[in-house]
Give the backbone structure.
Amino acid sequence: QVQLVESGGGLVQAGGSLRLSCAASGSIATINTMAWYRQAPGNQREMVALASSGGNTNYAESVKGRFTISMDNTKNTVYLQMNSLKPEDAAIYFCFSYVKSIGAPFSQYWGQGTQVTVSS
């Protein structure tokens, strides 16, 4: 089993910055992908940024140039640096990982979510 624990959410003024962290723990053999999704009230969950263990990254158009995702493979941790935050970035941010556990196939895992609030 794999657990994802997020931290770093909070309240920030528009134009400010936040850094989210997500640490994966458990019987991890290989991490293929780690990503951040977000869900605002009344909206579907959407991908914000994705990083592969090989170093590839992908971003939603709405956050390109403002958000940066990075992975520390030695710590099984993914970060999301969010700059120039806008009120529309406010949402619950969820960590996602595609992980192979020891003795098990690759599976998807989600964190519990962390709230990001942006005041205008």
User: Anything to note?
Assistant: The mean pLDDT is 96. The two ends are 40 Å apart (CA to CA). DSSP finds no helices and eleven strands in the chain.
